[in-house]
Amino acid sequence: MLSTILSFLSSLAWPTVTVIIALVFKSEISGLVLRLSNLKYKDLELTFGEDLKKAEALAKKLNLSPSDQIDEMPELKPKLSPHQALLQLADTYPEAAVLEAWRLVEIALISAAKSLQIDMPEWNSVRIISELKRLRKIDDATASFFEGLRRLRNKAAHVPSERLTPEQATGYVELALSLAASLKDFVKS
To answer: Is 1 part of any domain?
Structure first.
């Protein structure tokens, strides 16, 4: 009886190890499969490279226009406001939404600096905030808020272990866009 059980368990060992390896390296395996130009399993054969060459040869025979002759792309989706676009991006790519929202804050900062005729050899958001604070266009609380958002942006960009949820990215987007929109008012006062 014991030998039957051991025999059964040993027959399961390799398939079990194979499944575990496949699960652990799932993303790496799928990435590798996508890069393959030829894949064959039993009666299924995928040869992307060969099929692409056939399509290119057929395109030459058809005398198609060059690909760089496309002037415009039809709108697949209605145009979105930056706010709507960033919220949509937050659902699928939270880190990218944070980076894009921060980019809008930096654009607003540069615009504010230019409207105040602040001249800097290099546009640096920290220096601009410091100058706006020196000119009393923003207060300490606003400068601190800016610094907090900047640090959160840096975590999203540089700390891969800090995975963001769509909800966190949405919260960041709302705060960053509020700051960017408010910079116009801070400069006017």
So the answer is: no
